[in-house]
Amino acid sequence: MLYQRLKPYEAGIATAGIFFFLSCPSAFTADTFFASETPSAVFLACLASVILTSVIVCLIYLSRVQCLKKENRELRKTLLRKETNYAAQNRFLDDFSRNVRTPINTILGTADLARRTLPSSNHQITDYLNCMAVASGQILAIASELSDVTYPEGKDIEILDDLFNMNDFASKCRTTIPFYLTGRNLAFECVTDAIVHPEIIGDEMHLHQILLNLIENAVKFTPDNGKITLHISEISAGHRMASFRFEVRDTGIGMTQQKLNSILAQDLRQDDPSDSSVHGTGLGLLIVRELVERLGGSFSAESRLNEGSRFIVEIPFAINLLTFQNKDQSQEIKHLDGINILLVEDNLLNAMMAQEVLEKESASVVLAENGRIALEKFRQSQINFFDAILMDIIMPEMDGFEAARAIRSLERTDAPVVPIVALSVQASTDDIRKSRDAGMNAMLGKPIEIPLLIKTLMQCIQKKSIELSEQLDHSRIQAMRDGLTGVKNRMAYLTAISSLNQKLKRKEVSEFGIIVFDINGLKESNDTRGHTAGDRLIQCACRLICRIFAHSPVFRIGGDEFVVLLLEEDYLNREMLLQQFETSMRTTVIDENRRDYLSVAYGLAVYDKNHPDSESVFQQADANMYARKALMKGIRNVH
Questions:
Q1: Cβ neighbours of residue 392 under 8 Å, at least 6 residues apart?
Q2: Which residue from 220, 263, 420, 502 has the fewest beta carbons nearer than 10 Å?
Q3: CB atoms within 10 A of CB 231
Q4: Which residues pair with 604 in a beta bridge?
């Protein structure tokens, strides 16, 4: 076997070496060796034979190694060429899909505008427009499949974790899916059932792509006068997870059991490929299976020949435990009246079409030809003039990603919060990731779907309002905090007293007390040891007050003064708490080197008939504090 694998010249060398080696024993026997007058010559001859044979074997081995290395180099070159060709093929498919989608989306958008503009009585032109939309939709579907088919082997799918509402998702399907039935006499129905946990976290984009592929497949194989049904239901729920079932049923041509068993193969058509009445690449279900597996779900199908098919997708989602408390679902905004939009689009025809669509919805539109111009127009606009920015992502000079990053980095109060919605003919996972990294809020496909655009803009604008409100609340909280100690300041105290007075008027509060604290020796500490030592003294006193009166609000109302508003439990235990404060104060050391102990004067007053309002209670507590302070001066030197 080994002999047969040698090259011809290797076999020749091996044959000569073996013949020479076998001939040596007959010439050099034991009798000849001992009879010879020069046995060393015989030994040298044998040694030479062994060396020559070893050299021949080494030459054969080295020759074989060189041949294997050459073969490996050729294999690597072949593999590299195949990988390069495969990558080029994927790039071509992506570029082809993108380049085809742009004009097709323009045609679809123009046809939709024309149908809206034409009077309803002009049926003939409307039929022509519907036929144009159907043909364009078929080309768009093929372009989508050509782009998506590179996912299983050529791309890595990034699974997104976004918050979305399943009921809203179903409404989106009711709005967008009939677009793919334009020109066909098909009925469509989207049914939801038993959705207990609508607020979920998952990959809405890929879920929509899965259902869209199933719907497109059903449209291809369902004759006119048929029906397609999408049924969405929540089938189970556990700890933080809920599983949803998505069923797409049609009354189409169906398929045999044999065909159903090979449903995920590329040749998915039940009919004869020569039948031109059915169009499609047969890649949709292959993509569905891949995406469902990536999302951790399952995919199954049922079908009977000439009776229709039923495709079932089950996917688990995380339950969103946090919901917006101020979400008003009773109001549904149906137009963009009063909304100022910066539309960034380099294609003039697409820009004019999008502008007309937006202005028909009462929006005010400012156009920008590329990202650089958009950046300048936003920079020169008044603060909060633009309510939203619609940004194409592929443009000359400055693309949408770079423009979004530049806008976010501007030193304007509206730059971090203005909604930026990306526009893409493809809306791939990579584009979505890049848009997020650039600071964009959402991504929409082309042509623009008005209901989805309105919903997206309203969500982004609402989120902007929430963020601004949170910033205002944060600023208000910070304004009511003391910077040195972290407790509430005088402004917070006045606000709390105002609220307390309102409760007193409504007789919601019947008893409370106020304690005023004043730190002894602060001026001396600042004058002799510096303000660092004085700050340490203030912080030490504040920590003790907060620890003893843990259930009451503490306010720093001056440099060395604190106020505690005693309510409920602390009010009832006020005497005991003050005794604890006295004991702790005598054992609290401020400076270990000097053995300085904390000294704080305090005064307590309670709400009663002698002090019928909060102001009189505070004045009495303040007077009691100064009386105690005077008493303490007689015991130690207090300033």
A1: 344, 345, 346, 347, 350, 400, 422, 423, 424
A2: 502
A3: 17
A4: 515
User: Is the separation of the CB atoms in 312 and 247 below 8 Å?
Assistant: yes
SS3 content of the chain, % helix, strand, coil (to 5): 55, 20, 30
Please state the rounded mean pLDDT for residues 71-75: 82
pLDDT at 276: 42
Cβ partners under 8 Å of residue 214, min gap 6: 248, 284, 285, 288, 311, 313
Name the pairing type of β-strands 488-489 and 340-344.
unpaired
Tell me phi and psi for residue 120, to 5 degrees.
-65, -15
Element housing 633 (H / E): helix 614-633
Would you put residue 299 in left (φ > 0), alpha (ψ -120 to 50) or beta?
Answer: beta
* DSSP annotation string for 51-108: HHHHHHHHHHHHHHHHHHHHHHHHHHHHHHHHHHHHHHHHHHHHHHHHHHHHHHHHHH
Between the two ends of the chain, the Cα-to-Cα distance in Å is: 108
* Cα atoms in the 13 Å half-sphere on the side-chain side of 106: 12
Return the pLDDT at 593. 64
At 5, list the tokens. 């694998």
Per residue in 204-235, pLDDT tens? Answer: 878 888 898 898 888 888 888 899 999 999 98
Summarize pLDDT for 545-580 with one digit per residue, the tens: 999 998 899 999 988 899 999 988 889 999 999 999
Decide the pairing of beta strands 388-392 and 340-344.
parallel
Cα–Cα nearest to 256, from 312, 313, 311, 307: 307
- Given a cut of 80, is residue 254 above it in pLDDT? yes
Cα 144–Cα 150–Cα 151 angle in degrees, nearest 5:
95
Overall average pLDDT of the 271-282 stretch: 44
Q: How far is it, in rounded angstroms, from Cα 278 to Cα 268?
A: 12
Torsion of CA 130, 136, 139, 143, to 10 degrees: -130
Nearest residue to 607 via CA among 595, 619, 597? 619
- pLDDT above 80 (res 111): no
Please state, in angstroms and rounded to a whole number, the distance separating the CA atoms of residues 398 and 461.
Answer: 25
Quick check: 93 and 150 in contact, CB under 8 A?
Answer: yes
- Can you give the pTM of this predicted structure? 0.44
Tokens describing residue 560? 């060395």
What does the block give as tokens for 539? Answer: 């912080």
